[in-house]
Specification:
Number of strands: 0
Largest sheet: none
Low-confidence stretches: none
Distance between the termini: 64 Å
Structural class: mainly alpha
Strand content: under 5%
Mean pLDDT: 84
């Protein structure tokens, strides 16, 4: 397998060398299905949601203080 050049990628060649024309699913359909089904791995369940809550709490807390110089 050879590397894909920037010109080949712009022309539509898959950068990973996947032969989409030989498969029974299009790249667009595969991407859509993957985005619908794939769940990112998290070391801590709902860690992103927890960080949003923590950030919003501190944003509210810090907004109560106004410092003047």
């Amino acid at each position: 397998m050879t590397d894909t050049s920037a010109a080949e990628a712009r022309a539509g060649k898959d950068i990973q060398g996947i032969p989409w024309e030989r498969l029974q699913i299009t790249r667009k359909d595969y991407r859509k299905a993957r985005l619908e089904q794939y769940k990112n791995y998290e070391n801590f369940p709902q860690s992103g949601e927890l960080m949003d809550k923590v950030f919003n709490y501190y944003k509210l807390y810090l907004s109560m203080f106004r410092f003047t110089v």
